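Predict structure. Chain length: 222.
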Amino acid sequence: MPDATPLNRISLSNQIRDLLLKRIMTGALKPGDRLIEMKIATEMSTSQAPVREALRELETMGVIESLRNKGARVRIITNEELRQLYDVRAQLEAYATGLVTELKIPLKSRLTESVKLMKKAARAGDSVEFAESNTLFHRIIIEATGNQVLLELWETLNVKTRTMVNVSRSSRSLIELAESHQAIIDAIRAGNPKKSDAVARDHVLKNKPAADMVDDRQAGAE
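Prediction complete.
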């Protein structure tokens, strides 16, 4: 089949992307660490093509950067950047939550299931899977609005990767973070759009990094 090779390569690049992302989020790869295509390809027993595709995706996600004549390296994501992102995210998700409440879109079962997945990941101490389930929760609400522009804007925030970074720096327990989503479910069910809007905004802003939070992993990374 002529399509077999491209499909396999795409699958391989996704696997490499996910593995590198996990290493970045767990700290195995630190800010400033270089990512050398040939070295990664040798480790993965593959050609450089899928590695290049994986690195390109990671750059789009905002976790690595390409420097002229220096190749790719793990990008430093500052707490100030996270704070600004959370401010924007709060507005988008508040609007979406208020809108799905106004439209009376039934989301309880799907949102409840994603909270269960968050709790499962939290109990396992898996911050990567927790971020995946967390992002799923908020994506369900965004997509339910039916507003494609809103979805596209939200996706540019790379919520999953930024959640991973924020979780790794926060002292708040993952179980507590998972349970905090119940207030959004309850607000949507109550049927008051203004209340839902406020609850969703408050939820995001409460998880915004503090202005004086120190990220030790940035030290010496430049």
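Summary: The longest strand covers residues 64-67.
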